[in-house]
C-alpha cells in the first residue's frame, strides 16, 4: 500500500471565519501558522464567507491563479455547503473530487467552549483533511441516457393519473395492472368524501362522474399501452435503462423503460385475524362488503338487506380501527381514511332508513381533511350515534349478534344487540409491493410500506423510480392523485433531460489482486458487483450505473482488490494518521 | 482528592491522560446527528475526531486496527439506525465487522471496550453527544492504548 505520496501535490487551504461564528472559538492566526507547515500546502488564506457569491468568486480566482492539485476549505459542515463552496472550486478549474471540506464549525467551534481546545481540534481536523487532499484524484461522473418511456405499475387512481400525465407530456407509458380492469379500489366504492355523492369515483351507475371518463382516457390514449391481468416478473438494469419482463395473458412481454412509477396501492386488513370480532358470522361484515352491497342494490331501489335473512337491519354498529392502531394483533399505524368512510356509510344508511339506529364505536375521530368537521356535524345532525370506546367482543347469543363495549364518556359498560355489524378495516402494506421493493432495492419502513427517503420532501427520485399513492402509506383518493401528479411531473423532468449523471465515487476493481471469490457480489445488494470470467480467470466486475458507492464490497474484500473511488484505503489511512499524529507532537 | 495528589506529585498516568478518539461516521444519519449536536451546542470532549464515510458498511476492520496502531485510544463507529440504513444493510455489515474486530482486540490484549458501534438517527444529536461523553469516560477508565503510548 502506498501511504506516502510519491509526487508532491499542491494544496490550497482556505479557512472561513463565517463572520466570527468560527473565529469566536478558533484562533485563526495559530491555524494559519500551523497549516502553512503541513505537507503540500502552498497557500493558506482566510475569508469571511466562502459560501457567498464573493466567497465563491474569491475561490475560483485563487484556483485559476494558483493551479492547485486539490483544495481544502475549513468551514462549516460539508452536508450543507459542499456543493456551493465546491462550486467555486470547480469554477476555478478543479475537478469536484479534488475538493475536501474540513468541518470546523458544527463539529468543532460550536461544540467546544474552550478556545485553546477548539483551536487544537481544528488543527487536527485540518491536518487530516490536508492529508486526504494530498491523495485525492480527479474522477469523471458517468453520463447515463434516459430511455424516453415509463413503466407504471398499478392501474388504480394513482397509477392512471401518473400514466395520463406522462403520456400527455408525450412519452410512451406502459401501464401494468394485475386485475382485469382499471380503477383499483376506488372502483369498488359507492360514494366518496367529501361530496358523499356521485364524486370522483362513483362509477357504477353515474355516467357523469370522473373515474369512468378517466378510465376511458387511459384506454384510448395512443401513448399508453394498458396491460391488464399482467404482472411484472423481473426488472434488471439501472437508472435510465431498465429492462422489464411482464407476464401477460398473451405470453411474456419485454420492454425497456427510462423511469418507473410504483403505484401498487395498499391492501385491506383481513378482519378474520381478530377472533374476538367474529368475522365468520354472516351479519358481521367489513366496510368493503357493505360498499359492494350498496353498489349491488343501486339500480334495484337501493334496499339494504342483511346477509343472514335479507331483513332490513334496525340497528347497525360500525367498529372503527379494525386492524389499525393495534400493535399487538393488527398494524400499529392509523389507516387515515376509515373514520371518514364510516361516517359516510353511516349517513347513507340513515338517509335510506331514518328509523334504523346507527352507532359508530371509535377511539378518536381522525379526519385531517378540509370539510371533515362539517361532514361529522352533518352525521350527528342526521342522528348517527358516536360512542367513544373500543369494542371488546362480538358474539352470538340466541341467534342475535351482541356487542360488548364501553361508553368511555358515560363511563358505562354496554351490551348492544345489533342486526348488522360493520368492521371498519384499515389499509396495510401490500405483499406484492414488498416483493417489488426487494427487486428494486427500495427500503421498507417498519409498517411495511415503502420508506420515505425524506419524510418532508416527497416525492423524490430514487434512481429513476418514483412512488405514487398508497404504496408509500395509507392515503385518501385525493392525496393519492396529488402524489401521482407530483411523481409524474418529476419523472417527466427526468425524461425531458434525456440524460443524467451518476457520481464518480463508485467501486473499482484491481483485477490483478482479485481472485474472484465473490464476496463483493455477496455483500452488494444492488447487483452492481458480479463475477465475470476475463482472460480465463474469474474476476469481479462493477457496473458504475448500479453501484451506489456505499462500499460494503470494499470493506468485505479479503484481498483488498475492490475499493471505492474517493474513499480508497490510500485516501483514508493518511487522514487517520495525520489526525492522531498531530496529538503526539503536542505531547512531545 | 487522590487525583489532585497524583497531579501534584507529577506521577501516575491518570492525571496526564487525555485520550485520542477517532469516530467513523456515516454520511446520512450519524454525521448529520453530529452536525446537529453542533447546531444545538451539545458539548462533548474535543478529543473526539470525526471522519466521514458514505456508509458505515465501508469501514474496514483495517481502518480500526490502523487507528489503534497510529495511537488512538478508542474508536467509535456510528451508523444509521439498524433497520434504517441508507444503503439497506451497510450498518448490519458494519455491526458484524465491529463484533469480529472486538474479538481480535480482546485477543491482542487491547480490550474490546476500546471499540464501540452506535446506531443513531439524524435527529439524535443529544444522544450523539451523550454517547461521545460516555465513550470518552470509558476510554479514560481503560487508560491509554498500550501500542500508542510506546510510540
What does this entry look like structurally?
The complex is a heterodimer of chains A (588) and B (151). Chain A has 4 domains: 1-139, Rossmann fold (3-Layer(aba) Sandwich), CATH 3.40.50; 149-265 and 430-499, FAD/NAD(P)-binding domain; 270-283 and 297-428, FAD/NAD(P)-binding domain, CATH 3.50.50; 503-565, Alpha-Beta Plaits (2-Layer Sandwich). Chain A is built from 15 helices and 28 strands. In chain A, the strands form 9 sheets. Chain A has a 5-stranded parallel sheet. A 5-stranded parallel sheet of chain A has the order 14-21-15-16-17. In chain A, strand 26 (529-534) and strand 27 form a beta hairpin. In chain A, helix 6 packs across helix 7 (211-220) and helix 9 packs parallel to helix 10 (372-381). Mean pLDDT of chain A is 90; it is low at 1-5, 199-208 and 584-588. With 151 residues, chain B is an alpha/beta fold. Chain B has a single domain (18-143), classed as Rossmann fold. Chain B is 48% helix and 15% strand. Chain B contains 7 helices and 4 strands. A 4-stranded parallel sheet of chain B has the order 2-1-3-4, with helices on both faces. In chain B, strand 1 (21-26), helix 3 and strand 2 (48-53) form a beta-alpha-beta unit. Chain B is globular, with a radius of gyration of 16 Å.
Amino acid at each position: 500500500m502506498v501511504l506516502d505520496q510519491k509526487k508532491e501535490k499542491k494544496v490550497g487551504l482556505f479557512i472561513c471565519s463565517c463572520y466570527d461564528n468560527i473565529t469566536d472559538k478558533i484562533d485563526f492566526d495559530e491555524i494559519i501558522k500551523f497549516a502553512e507547515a503541513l505537507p503540500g500546502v502552498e497557500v493558506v488564506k482566510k475569508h469571511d464567507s466562502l459560501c457567498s457569491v464573493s466567497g465563491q468568486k474569491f475561490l475560483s480566482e485563487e484556483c485559476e491563479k494558483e493551479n492547485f492539485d486539490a483544495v481544502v476549505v475549513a468551514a462549516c459542515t460539508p452536508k450543507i455547503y459542499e456543493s456551493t463552496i465546491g462550486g467555486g472550486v470547480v469554477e476555478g478549474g478543479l475537478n469536484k473530487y479534488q475538493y475536501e471540506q474540513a468541518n470546523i464549525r458544527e463539529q468543532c467551534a460550536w461544540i467546544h467552549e474552550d478556545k485553546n481546545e477548539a483551536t487544537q481540534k481544528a488543527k487536527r481536523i485540518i491536518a487530516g483533511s490536508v492529508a486526504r487532499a494530498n491523495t485525492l484524484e480527479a474522477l469523471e461522473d458517468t453520463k447515463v441516457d434516459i430511455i424516453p418511456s415509463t413503466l407504471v405499475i398499478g392501474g388504480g387512481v394513482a397509477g392512471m393519473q401518473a400514466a395520463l400525465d406522462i403520456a400527455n407530456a408525450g412519452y410512451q407509458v406502459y401501464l401494468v395492472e394485475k386485475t382485469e380492469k382499471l380503477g383499483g379500489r376506488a372502483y369498488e366504492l359507492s360514494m366518496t368524501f367529501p361530496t358523499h355523492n356521485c364524486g370522483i369515483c362513483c362509477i357504477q351507475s353515474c355516467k357523469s362522474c370522473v373515474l369512468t371518463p378517466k378510465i376511458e382516457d387511459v384506454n384510448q390514449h395512443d401513448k399508453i399501452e394498458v396491460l391488464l391481468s399482467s404482472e411484472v416478473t423481473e426488472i434488471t438494469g439501472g437508472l435510465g435503462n431498465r429492462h422489464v419482463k411482464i407476464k401477460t395473458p398473451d405470453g411474456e412481454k419485454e420492454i425497456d423503460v427510462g423511469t418507473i412509477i410504483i403505484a401498487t396501492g395498499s391492501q385491506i386488513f383481513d378482519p378474520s385475524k381478530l377472533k374476538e370480532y367474529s368475522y365468520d358470522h354472516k351479519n358481521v361484515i367489513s366496510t368493503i362488503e357493505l360498499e359492494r352491497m350498496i353498489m349491488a342494490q343501486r339500480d334495484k331501489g337501493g334496499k339494504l338487506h342483511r346477509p343472514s335473512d335479507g331483513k332490513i337491519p334496525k340497528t347497525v354498529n360500525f367498529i372503527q380501527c379494525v386492524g389499525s392502531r393495534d400493535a399487538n394483533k393488527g398494524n400499529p399505524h392509523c389507516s387515515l381514511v376509515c373514520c371518514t368512510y364510516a361516517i359516510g356509510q353511516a349517513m347513507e344508511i340513515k338517509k335510506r332508513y331514518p328509523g334504523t339506529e346507527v352507532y359508530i364505536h371509535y377511539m378518536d375521530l381522525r379526519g385531517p381533511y378540509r370539510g371533515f368537521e362539517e361532514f361529522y356535524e352533518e352525521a350527528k345532525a342526521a342522528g348517527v350515534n358516536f360512542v367513544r370506546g373500543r369494542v371488546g367482543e362480538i358474539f352470538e347469543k340466541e341467534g342475535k349478534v351482541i356487542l360488548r363495549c364501553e361508553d368511555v364518556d358515560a363511563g358505562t359498560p354496554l351490551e348492544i344487540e345489533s342486526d348488522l355489524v360493520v368492521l371498519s378495516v384499515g389499509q396495510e402494506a401490500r405483499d406484492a409491493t414488498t416483493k417489488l421493493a426487494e427487486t428494486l432495492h427500495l427500503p421498507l419502513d417498519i409498517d411495511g410500506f415503502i420508506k420515505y427517503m425524506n419524510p418532508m420532501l416527497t416525492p423524490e427520485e430514487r434512481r429513476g423510480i418514483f412512488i405514487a399513492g398508497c404504496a408509500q402509506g395509507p392515503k385518501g383518493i385525493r392525496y393519492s392523485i396529488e402524489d401521482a401528479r407530483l411523481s409524474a411531473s418529476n419523472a417527466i423532468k427526468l425524461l425531458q433531460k434525456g440524460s443524467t449523471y451518476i457520481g464518480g465515487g463508485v467501486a473499482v476493481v484491481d483485477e490483478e489482486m482479485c481472485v474472484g471469490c465473490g464476496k463483493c457480489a455477496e455483500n452488494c445488494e444492488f447487483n452492481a458487483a458480479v463475477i465475470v470470467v476475463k482472460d480465463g480467470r474469474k474476476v469481479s466486475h462493477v457496473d458504475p450505473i448500479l453501484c451506489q458507492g456505499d462500499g460494503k464490497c470494499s470493506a468485505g474484500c479479503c484481498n483488498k482488490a475492490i475499493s471505492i473511488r474517493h474513499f480508497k484505503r490510500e485516501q483514508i489511512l493518511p487522514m487517520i494518521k495525520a489526525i492522531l499524529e498531530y496529538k503526539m507532537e503536542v505531547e512531545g | 482528592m487522590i487525583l489532585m495528589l497524583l497531579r501534584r506529585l507529577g506521577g501516575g498516568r491518570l492525571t496526564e491522560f487525555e485520550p485520542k478518539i477517532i469516530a467513523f461516521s456515516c454520511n446520512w444519519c450519524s454525521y448529520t446527528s453530529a452536525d446537529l449536536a453542533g447546531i444545538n451546542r451539545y458539548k462533548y470532549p474535543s478529543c473526539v475526531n470525526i471522519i466521514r464515510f458514505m456508509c458505515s458498511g465501508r469501514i474496514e476492520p483495517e481502518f480500526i486496527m490502523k487507528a489503534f496502531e497510529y495511537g488512538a485510544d478508542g474508536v467509535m463507529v456510528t451508523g444509521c439506525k439498524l433497520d434504517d440504513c441508507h444503503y439497506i444493510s451497510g450498518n448490519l455489515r458494519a455491526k458484524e465487522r465491529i463484533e469480529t474486530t472486538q474479538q481480535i482486540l480482546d485477543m491482542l490484549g487491547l480490550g474490546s471496550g476500546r471499540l464501540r458501534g452506535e446506531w443513531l438517527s439524524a435527529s439524535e444529536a443529544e444522544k450523539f453527544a451523550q454517547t461521545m461523553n460516555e465513550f470518552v469516560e470509558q476510554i479514560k477508565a481503560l487508560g491509554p492504548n498500550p501500542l500508542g503510548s510506546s510510540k
